[in-house]
Amino acid sequence: MSEQPTEFNVWARPKEGSLARAVQWTREKWKLSLAEAMSRVNDSKKTGWVLLHERCGWLDVPALVKSLPDFVEPGSAAVTEYELGYSPAGCNAYCATHGLHFLRGSRAPDAPCPVCAGWYIDTVQNGMAYRLTRHDGDGGDA
Ligand SMILES: [Zn+2]
Questions:
Q1: CA–centroid distance, residue 104 to ligand 1 (Å)
Q2: Which long-range contacts (CB under 8 A, 24 or more apart) does 130-138 make?
Q3: What domain of life is recorded for the organism (predicted)?
Q4: Backbone phi, then psi, for 131, in 5-degree steps?
């Protein structure tokens, strides 16, 4: 299995009564049909988390967490590793140092968080993922 450096997803808790706004935002953000957007927002009602940003670099995360859209609870953002796409509710481990929800056991049973492990993408610009901290000769292609 080829191990790609981790990218990150940003989630937040939708506000009560924000359904229509959440659907509109989700539709525009992900370029979905109305039905697809409603399905995704319904899923987020079940898990309690709505996906705001996908496949971000670790250095991109702080700005995204600070500027949340109006239909989520202020300060409710949570960050997960992108791989497998689990919401914070679906992750089984949390690194308090990095504020990162992740899946322990997706690599090794006692694996630390990907940021602790140093195996992650720093920034994603125009769909290209860059690692600034370590270079392994892969040309940086995503
Ligand atoms: Zn960590």
A1: 12
A2: 130/57, 131/5, 132/59
A3: Bacteria
A4: -110, 125
Ligand 1 centre distance from Cα of residue 134 (Å): 17
Domain ranges of the chain: 8-130
The torsion of the CA quartet 88, 32, 125, 137, rounded to 10 degrees, works out to 70
Tell me the CA–centroid distance for residue 141 and ligand 1, in Å: 25
- Residue numbers in the chain where pLDDT is lower than 50: 1-2, 135-142
One-letter amino acid for residue 97 of the chain? T
Specify the pairing of strand 50-56 against strand 128-130.
unpaired
Whole-model pTM: value is: 0.87
Question: Which residues, in sequence order, are CB contacts of 45 under 8 Å at separation 6+?
Answer: 14, 19
Measure the CA–CA gap between 84 and 124, rounded to whole angstroms. 18
Q: Return d(Cα 92, Cα 95) in angstroms, integer.
A: 11
